[in-house]
């Protein structure tokens, strides 16, 4: 039997929970840590004579400055997870105390519990995204989901084949800035999650993308706008993408995921650990340092194979689960 929360999420494909996080307590620490990373990058990469001046700039100006320095894979310094490909000893990622606090935030877990039940694991499909105004982006980044538009996809499709079949996962999308149609909120199509997992293909720079996604462009969209303090939940089969940031402001967000304990994470060997359980002994990862150790151990395992995760693409070998077939087109 589904509870009201589960029913609503399944009925629509998304749910907005208003005003549950505190900017000061829950969100600003993450932005402060991002700024710390920027300061480190400035110290390392800026012209010596500029460093003191640049360090005095605000968040937005510092980021704009470093984004022009041609730093290899810049988004990765601000992203919570290992890079998808080319995992190396010195691969960086944004695993900070503030993010650990967010992943294990009681207010978030209370909501997740209503969807997944009392046995919950943090799922390693996680991102933090800093999106500058699109007009400031280099051409190659406009269709890159970390810094620009995100293609139409379902979150279940970013798991490996086992995860796609067996994992009950929910996405918790968290804005650090007010997010609107103008600055690139996500959009979705109501109830489209009910179609189940669709066939995906490899899109721009290997990003996973619904096959025939141009059909979605023509459908009626729901903009997933949100205020700071709100969170948005996505059903694993919700089809969504994000709009371009056509504003003059930054759009910053995190997307965290959780799965029912005991099911595959869909991204082995990346960290997948209990964050809530009736049996306290299951909560083995209890602080930031232990979490970071999990990521470092995962990195060691990923270095020889060179990748952190791979998408099984195309998702299905035949075309029975292509969007156009299911829409009878
Ligand atoms: O924040 C975005 O632009 C995209 C997020 C997204 O697609 C996701 O969380 O699956």
Question: Could you explain the architecture of this structure?
Answer:
- With 329 residues, the protein is α+β, with helices and mostly antiparallel strands.
- The protein is built from ten helices and twelve strands.
- The strands form three sheets. Strands 1-9-4-11-2-12 form a six-stranded antiparallel sheet. Strands 3-10-5-8 form a four-stranded antiparallel sheet, with no helix packed on it.
- Strand 6 and strand 7 (208-210) form a beta hairpin.
- The model has no long low-confidence stretch (mean pLDDT 97).
- Bound molecules: 2-oxoglutaric acid.
- The site of 2-oxoglutaric acid has 11 residues, from strand 4, strand 10 and strand 11.
